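Please check this chain.
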Amino acid sequence: MSYNILVTGGAGYLGSTMVPDLLAAGHKVTVLDNFMFKQTSLNHCCYHPNFTIVKGDIRTESTMAPLMKNADVIIPLAALVGAPLCTLDPIGATTINHDAITLMIKLLSKNQIVLMPTTNSAYGTGDENNHCTEESPLRPISQYAIEKVGIEKELMQNPNAISFRLATVFGMSPRMRIDLLVNDFTYRAVNDRFVVLFESHFKRNYIHVRDVSRVFQHALNNYDKMKGQIYNVGLSDANVSKRELCEHIQKQRPDFVFIEAPVGKDPDQRNYIVSNDKIEATGFKPEFSLDRGIGELIKGYTMIKNTRYGNV
């Protein structure tokens, strides 16, 4: 079955991978994005007759209302993503990550489907064993996680919504983000050959950007049995600490050195083990392992180097 799909923030890290996949699956896709990073990550989609692009702001009702009216499915990816960016612009974070989604919820019709990415960083430090299922208490630490928790509560009052609590995403994308943990550590291994770790025993879960795209399509194909639910989405064999992540990278870059900082504290205090049993029970299985993603990133960093303020 094909849908008319509105993807907000579709030129971002997730969207620029997801939108071509949705088009390839036969859907009509409209992307709304403000292109705040001046990205050209959807150039390769412009040839497609089922692709429409709109430059605009999700906070503007006169922009959102007509686009939503024509959509069967809304995938709201537009956000200021991650704790550092939200700390840098807390007002923007609130208006984009919370207020704009509240507006979207207000404009929804009773038959429209919403597939929403949230975050498993909402678990904070988990329970006494750091183990988290979808039923675990939420203890968000950062503004980003707090806003996502609030929106998820509002969204899940709609029986047609599905929330995906995404693990930390990794992998190459047309709109690349080097700041994500696996991407960052691999970049350092390739270019600096070392990294200093704070609280290296802290664990978190990971998921490849292409598996994020796959799980959204999986939800469309299994919507009747998945609607109205919250799902953790991550690699069940990749609940690993920062030190263990570095060991994975070192297998492919033997000259990579990682050391524990004698003092200091990680500003991001996430530390948890996440169960992905619920999403796997629907038949979804990730395709991209952590090691495969690291290899992909090593290849990608042959092409990418952050030299904005460097001489070479």
Remarks:
- Residues 130 and 272 are 4 Å apart (CA to CA).
- The chain has a mean pLDDT of 93.
